[in-house]
């Protein structure tokens, strides 16, 4: 029998032949620097937009990491989540809206008058990039707004909801666009949303066949000439948009990318012209009784006229950065005066939802009614007394606002600080940025 002098090299060779060299596994994710956003200030012209204006269009897109055969590595794209910055708004009544019944089926039956843009996706199944129309949909219960698109079997209904950054301080609200469970593999997506869908220059892409690229099949828009998109009234920094994606192989594990608004040279640039943004709120306040030294409620109303919201050539009015209400001298508050009154804790307030205000009924001080042109239903809710000294401001008297529009899935939560002048006892209540609010009615009992 012949034995090798050293069996280790032979074993190493056999293992190498059986298993081959180690290959680095590619990760699912967004191709570096591929996520981008841009604004057209006029047809075909990318530039720096006017703050609080209505751009000609807003575009975004990204590509996934792909292998040599053009498929996404690490699994097929499952979900796409997009966060738009506070102040970026869409007016859902700028066009007609497509119903779910019209959208479903082998051929989409949505009217061209419901189209608000176009979308393109690379589908490895077809080996090419195809396009389709983006529609303004009638949202289902519990959803603020909804879009719909159909591209060669890639049908989806992204839902738009309202998110808040920090209800304890800024209370700034932004739009969250979510699309879960894409039915077909897509390795890149490009979306263009029209600022004013009624523009005649969009006719060439209006209609299902036109959006898919069939020449000479465009449609004219029938309806009022109303703006759909409104930009933030913010000139200190570029408009930042984020996207998150996950795969069907690893659902729930999201990969994130961020993009900023760019000028024509590709440099991150903020909107301009904030000094031209109008701001003319209407304010009224009155006690519910005129008897001296008597307990009284307070009716406070804040109105925000916004004629520029739907005017495609106008500039929309900005929302308040903060609301500060100073009561007349001599009007004081006694949080413990009401029988059985208790405070709402920060934890209770943080658990507010569409079905549960979080704060106990025994901490309720007044009511809230807010109307926004962006939704049909009013936001209704209550004002609550925060637990003294155990609140975000660590002071004696603070307020919590909780309001909902359940049919649209809108939840508004905001904390307000009450300062007491140590000399005069005069009260000043301050709330952070109040977004999506047109009217506030706050009857609060004073003693």
Structural commentary:
- By secondary structure, the chain is mainly β.
- It has 4 helices and 23 strands.
- It has helices at residues 7-19, 100-103, 208-211, 346-350, and strands at residues 36-42, 45-46, 57-63, 77-83, 89-90, 115-123, 128-137, 145-151, 154-156, 159-164, 173-179, 188-194, 229-230, 240-247, 255-260, 282-287, 298-303, 323-326, 364-370, 379-385, 397-405, 410-420, 427-431.
- Strands 1, 2, 3, 4, 6, 7, 8, 9, 10, 11, 12, 14 and 15 form a 13-stranded antiparallel beta sheet that branches. The protein has a 6-stranded antiparallel beta sheet with strand order 18-23-22-21-20-19, with no helix packed on it. It has a two-stranded antiparallel ribbon with strand order 5-13.
- The longest helix is centred in the first third of the chain and has 13 residues, at 7-19.
- The model is unreliable at 1-25 and 435-447 (pLDDT under 50).
Give me the oligomer status.
Answer: single chain
State the major sheet. 13 strands, antiparallel
Mean of residue pLDDT values = 84
- Total strand segments: 23
Radius of gyration: 27 Å
Portion of residues in beta strands equals 25-35%
Structural class: mainly beta
N- and C-termini, Cα separation: 108 Å
Write down the overall geometry: globular
Runs in which pLDDT lies below 50 for 5 or more consecutive residues are 1-25, 435-447
H-E order: HEEEEEHEEEEEEEHEEEEEEHEEEEE
Our count of helices gives: 4
State the helical fraction.
Answer: under 10%
């Amino acid at each position: 029998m012949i034995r090798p002098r050293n069996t280790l090299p032979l074993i190493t060779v056999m293992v190498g032949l059986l298993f081959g060299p180690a290959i680095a596994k590619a990760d699912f994710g967004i191709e570096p620097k591929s996520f981008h956003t841009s604004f057209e200030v006029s047809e075909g012209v990318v530039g720096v937009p006017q703050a609080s204006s209505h751009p000609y269009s807003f575009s975004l897109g990204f590509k996934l990491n792909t292998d040599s055969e053009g498929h996404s590595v690490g699994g097929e794209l499952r979900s796409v989540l997009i966060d738009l910055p506070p102040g970026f708004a869409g007016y859902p009544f700028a066009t007609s809206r497509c119903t779910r019944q019209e959208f479903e089926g082998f051929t989409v039956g949505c009217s061209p008058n419901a189209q608000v843009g176009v979308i393109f996706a690379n589908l490895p199944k077809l080996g090419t990039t195809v396009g389709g129309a983006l529609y303004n949909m009638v949202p289902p219960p519990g959803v603020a707004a909804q879009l719909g698109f159909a591209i060669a079997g890639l049908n989806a209904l992204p839902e738009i909801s309202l998110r808040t950054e920090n209800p304890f301080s800024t209370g700034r609200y932004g739009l969250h666009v979510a699309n879960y469970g894409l039915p077909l593999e897509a390795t890149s997506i490009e979306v263009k949303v029209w600022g004013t869908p009624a523009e005649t220059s969009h006719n060439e892409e209006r209609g299902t066949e036109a959006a898919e690229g069939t020449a000479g099949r465009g449609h004219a828009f029938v309806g009022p000439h109303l703006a759909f998109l409104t930009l933030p009234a913010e000139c200190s920094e570029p408009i930042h948009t984020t996207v998150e994606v996950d795969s069907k192989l690893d659902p729930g594990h999201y990969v994130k990318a961020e993009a900023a608004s760019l000028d024509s040279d590709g440099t991150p640039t903020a909107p301009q012209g904030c000094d031209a943004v109008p701001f003319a709120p209407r304010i009224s306040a009155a006690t519910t009784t005129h008897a001296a030294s008597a307990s009284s409620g307070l009716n406070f109303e804040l109105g925000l006229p916004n004629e520029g919201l739907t005017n495609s050539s106008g500039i929309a009015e900005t929302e308040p950065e903060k609301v500060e209400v100073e009561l007349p001298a001599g009007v004081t508050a006694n949080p413990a005066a009401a029988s059985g009154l208790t405070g709402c804790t920060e934890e209770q307030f943080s658990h507010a939802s569409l079905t549960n205000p979080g704060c106990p009924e025994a901490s309720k001080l007044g009511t809230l009614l807010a109307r926004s042109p962006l939704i049909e239903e009013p936001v209704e809710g209550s004002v609550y007394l925060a637990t003294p000294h155990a609140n975000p401001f660590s002071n004696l008297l603070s307020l919590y606002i909780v309001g909902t529009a359940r049919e649209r899935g809108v939840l508004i939560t905001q904390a307000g600080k009450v300062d007491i002048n140590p000399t005069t006892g005069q009260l000043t209540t301050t709330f952070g940025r109040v977004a999506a609010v047109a009217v506030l009615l706050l009857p609060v009992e004073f003693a």
